[in-house]
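name: query_chain
kind: protein
chains: 1
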Amino acid sequence: MTSAGAIAELQQYTACDISDALLKLKVPGAGFVADLSLVSPAAGEPSSVTVAPVSTVLFAPKGQELAEPAPNIPKGVHWADLTVPETIVVLQQPDGQKNAICGGIMAVRMKVCEAKGIVVAGRVRDIEELRSTSLPIWSRGLSTVGAGGGSSPWATQVPLDIDGTIVSPGDLALIDPINGVVVIPKDKVSAVLELLPKITAADEKVKEDVLKGATVFEAFKRHRSNL
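structure:
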């Protein structure tokens, strides 16, 4: 498990800073989970960043089976009841569906189970109830239709491939209320923490030079070429 110190340090940075580091480390997609919108802001400071380990839920088209991974949700158990405490829950819905996969009751259950946030690569509904949780919640769209309209929960705690960004249980998700959501592979956390101070310091110097009249090309060459 990633240390509390690492999480606290990462909270000092933006999602853009994290993606800059992941790009340097050649992580596919630079960790960015694209096309999300903020549905429910976190309680407290509007600009505060939330960082926590990832847990995952994968949905399948209703009535269809996926070739992989194997289904693992026990019969008679709702996926929301399997929420891993102290995690940011990432849900993935099959592309092109119009129904939601997360609504108010599920969000409330995840809150009770001590989730730190919810990221839905798909649709959500019951917006007022989602906001009542005071969890940071992001999604790709809205719906009035429940999950039964087209989706079935298939597996939890499995890797997700969200448009080329790989999201695995135990990775770190960073929810930035201004810039979006980025996921750091668990084996890249130390390297990201090492790079971040260098990248942000270089960017500050670039901005200073540009304000003084330097071209962006000159400033980048001077301060970012050796990173």
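note: Residues 21 and 192 are 6 Å apart (CA to CA).
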